[in-house]
Specification:
CATH architecture of the largest domain: 3-Layer(aba) Sandwich
Strand content: 15-25%
Radius of gyration: 19 Å
Bound molecules: oxa(dethia)-CoA
Number of helices: 9
Largest sheet: 5 strands, mixed
Structural class: alpha/beta
Order of helices and strands: EEHHEHEHEHEEEEEHEHHHEE
Shape: globular
Distance between the termini: 49 Å
Length: about 350
Amino acid sequence: MIQPVGARITGVGAAVPASVVTNADLERLVDTSDEWITTRTGIKQRRVVSENETATGLAVAAAREAIAYAGIAPGEIDLIIVATSTPDNLYPSTACMVQAAVGAQRAAAFDLEAACSGIIYALAVGQQFIGSGTFKTVLMVGVDIHSRFLNWEDRNTCILFGDAAGALVMQAADGENEILATYLRADGTGGHLLSIPNYGTAYPHAGTTPPKAVNRYLHMNGRAIYEFAVNAVPEAVRAACARAGIRVEDIDFFVPHQANQRIIKAAAERLKFKPEQIVSNLDQYGNTSAASIPLALRDALARGQIKPPATCALVGFGGGLTWGAAIIRWTAAERQMTEGFPNE
Ligand code: UT7
C-alpha cells in the first residue's frame, strides 16, 4: 500500500507591474468617484501592465522569488502548474514558458484554468502529486492580466481588477503534513455570471483576416457574484476545516481571494474571524484574480502579520463558477521577506 506523503509550502513570492492606476485616474476615464470605489469595494489603487509586459514575465518574477525563499535550485522542481485565465498564448502554455525561463529543466509543466480559484485548485493538484509520491517539489504560480480584457469605458468592471502574479513552492515533508486539507467545488450553471466570451473557438470568426471587430471584454453580474461569494467562502472554510479535523476557531489567519472588502468582511463575520485575523491588501492591488491569494500571503509575511506557527485558511472563488479552500499549517522557519517586490 502506498503511504501518503505530507506536503508543505516552503516558498512564497509575488510580482506586480510598476504602473499604478489610482481611483483618481479612473475618475478621468469613467463616471465614478474615489468615494464610490472605496466604499463599495475597498480598492484605492491597482497595478496595470505596460504594453510590453506579459503574464509570463510576471509569473517568472514571482516564481524566482518563491524559489529563492524556498532555498531550492530550479533543477529540483518536478512540476510547474500555472493557474491563469489570461495566458500569453493558447499555447505554448505559460507554465512551459516559466519552465524555460527559470531553468527548471526536469520539470513537467501545464496550465490550469479555474479563474480566481486557480491557485487553490493548483494547491490541491500539487498536493496529490506529492501525496502519491510521484513528485517531491512543485512550483505553483497564479498570474492574471485582466487589464487586457477590460472595457475601460465600463465602470462596473474596470475599477475592480489589477494585474499580478503570486507563486508558491510545495515540497514533500518528512513526517509532517503542513497542507492539512483542500476542498474544491464548481458550478458550471453559473458560468455566464462572470466570463470573457469570444476569445476561444466558440467564436467562429477567430481566424478571419482582418479579425472582425468583436467584444471580448470581461462581463460580470456583480451582484450575483457577490451573493455567490458570501455563501461560498464560509462553506469552503467550514468544509476544509472538517476535512482537516480542526474547528474553524482553530484558524489563526483568513487569507481570502481579494475581490471586494465587503465580501471579505461579510464572510469573516459569518465565520466569526476577528479583524486582526483577516489578511487583505486589496486596497493596494485590486482583484488580481489567480494571483491574489499568494500576493496577500506574501504581503502578510513581509509585514509580519503572519508569524509561524499559524494555521491559515486560504479561500478562492470566481469564474466557472469555482470555489475552494486550503488549510495550511504555516510552520516554516521565519525567513527574511522584504516589503518591496524584487521585480521593481
Ligand atoms: O473574482 C471575482 C470577481 N468579481 C467579484 O467579486 C465582484 C463581486 N461584486 C461586487 O464586488 C459588487 O457587486 C460591485 C462592486 C461590482 C458592485 O457593487 P454593488 O454594491 O453590487 O453595486 P450595484 O452593481 O448594485 O450598482 C449600484 C449602482 C448602480 O447604479 P444605479 O443603477 O443604482 O443607478 C451602478 O450603475 O452603482 C452604479 N455603479 C457605479 N457608480 C459609480 C456601478 N459601478 C460604479 C462605479 N462608480 N464604478
